[in-house]
Amino acid sequence: MNNKLYGNLIFELSKEGRKGYSLPKNNFGSYEIPSAMRRTEDAVLPECDELTVVRHYTNLSNNNFGVDTGFYPLGSCTMKYNPKINEEVAAMPQFQNLHPKQPAATVKGAQALVSLLEKSLCELTGLAHFTFKPYAGAHGELTGLMTIDNYHRSRGDMARKKVVVPDSAHGTNPASAAVCGLEIIEVKSLANGQVDFEDLQRIVAEQGQEIAAMMMTNPNTLGLFETRIPEIAKLIHACGGLMYYDGANLNPMLGACRPGDMGFDVMHINLHKTFSTPHGGGGPGSGPVGVREGLQQFFPFVSPYQGNYAVMMRAYAYILSLGREHVKEVGPLAVLNANYIKESLKDVYELPIDGLCCHEFVFDGLKDKSTGVTTMDVAKRLLDYGYHAPTIYFPLLFHESLMVEPTENESKETLDEFIGVMRKIAEEAKNDPDLVKSAPHNTPIGRVDDVLAAKHPVVTYRQLQNETM
Q: pTM for the full model?
């Protein structure tokens, strides 16, 4: 491969006067651009021929990593494979070319799909109604909490402004509650990773009249099934609060059990996770919110449109492809794959909470701490072997967290190869720790200063030029 085309910026491939196009003669006359809209100096743009541009960006695209190119065990994100039929359906011009301002009479097919998807999600979750307006999981959280707040306000119960959140929760839970104008009460976790029921009882006894809801993820952020959900739901309902289900970890529950049957009143679904839409790089997302019967009247106005419709189409195609009989296999297979990796590696990686996990699990770095090799080092070394790193340093309950989620799609052969590489890195850490600490070695860019990159990103070529002078 031509390293100059592969490793350089497009600006560095620029040659003055070189063009990759020719514009037709202007037949529209000359028009003055208002002075306030004109540049005071020429834009800094690269000058390249078409072939150089094509090769440059094709080489860059080949350096991208995704589910279609390799194993993506990103814990908490459920980066599952997106069947290509989903993309074909989402690209159908009959749907893709719809305009949000079209008359309702011209989009009956699209509306029918939304209704059918709602019916499917109600069956899968045990809830009665869904709104598809939220554009992401966090947007769904906010919508769900606003629904709960509206419910309490409708009853004149203005004092309920507190939300109970486990200390193991996703960071979006307290953030969404705060944006909604609610106060967060943190409930502790036990050594086994589950909610401390006695601590929750104390909170309810002291502040029950002010509790609007309790937010829970089940399985929780450690990938562990919360076994006392019925008791928790009974306790929260008895004090007048509602139960909110964070659907980020719905994947292992799919076809196995339903949040509505556990006692949850409101939930959001990360449709892009559990129902297979590629969402790396921050999008696209969809966070529909479901409620039990009677709460649908309290849905807030968060958008005039039906959310991210293409994600909804992919989700419905995915559900139809599986069918009633095969959707029941999703959760159990996700759980099986995660436990297989966990059990195969726990002799060389520290497992802080032993026992059966669900769709994901968390190691606390290498078991042999004497090597000085950190979770960050392990993640960087994995890149050399062609794997995307798992989620690292989350959840915050452990110092060297390494969270793995294989999803249900991966074959045993893929899992075995990943296990083999993880064991090899553990061996390298023991015999040649500097090799791991200085990784990656086989990528276009080596170890970078992550803190500097986050706090002082260089995002323009001109800025880069100035800083290298």
A: 0.91
